[in-house]
Amino acid sequence: MKSPSYRASREVWTPSRPLTASSLATGGLQLSARSAFTLVEIMVASSIGLLVIAGAMTFLQFANISLSGTIAQTGMNQQAGNAIEFIQSRVRLATSVSNDASGNVLTMSFDDNPVVDSDGDGIPYNDKDHYEQFQFLGLNGDTNATATNRLIYILNTASPANQQVLIPSGVRNLPGYNIFTVTNKSTVIVRFGVVDTYTFDHYHSIDIQATAVPLNRPAQTSFISILP
Q: Residue ranges of the domains in the chain?
């Protein structure tokens, strides 16, 4: 018995019309025209892209200003807070406090050895063995010069070169007040402001007002007061 034989068939595609060079060229041009963008479409897309980029740039600029201002305000708050806490801590340990006529210098005396009566008054813990100062260096009331105004601490007035900068710039007077005021020879009132002079973040400031009282003070100076 003979096995069935198979013959592969092949289909041949016949164009409905003959392909010529002109038809191929025309079809190619039509295909290129369909796959490209018109000039109007490109201009519209470019305009939309530019608007999106401009919006993103504006957002980033304002975000940068806001972040810079937040950082500046936080730094000033911490700097001013540390300074006033340090002033209060030194005043509490002082045996006497006084300020100069300008209100820019606060002078404090300290007893180096509370068991030795160095001044011979019969009280060993109220001596004035050395003096320390807090000083405002700059121009009072001139807001244009705050960039050079600073607050320093002198560890011993006998060695004024040995000093520490508490606030390096931006210190100013509060309107109508001295920076240091001593009342009743024992109560120290401290009032000052700190200004950020960086114009990019549209300036920032903080105002500080606090009191400090020496723990080692005469009994007749103890009283209660209210700050204005």
A: 55-221
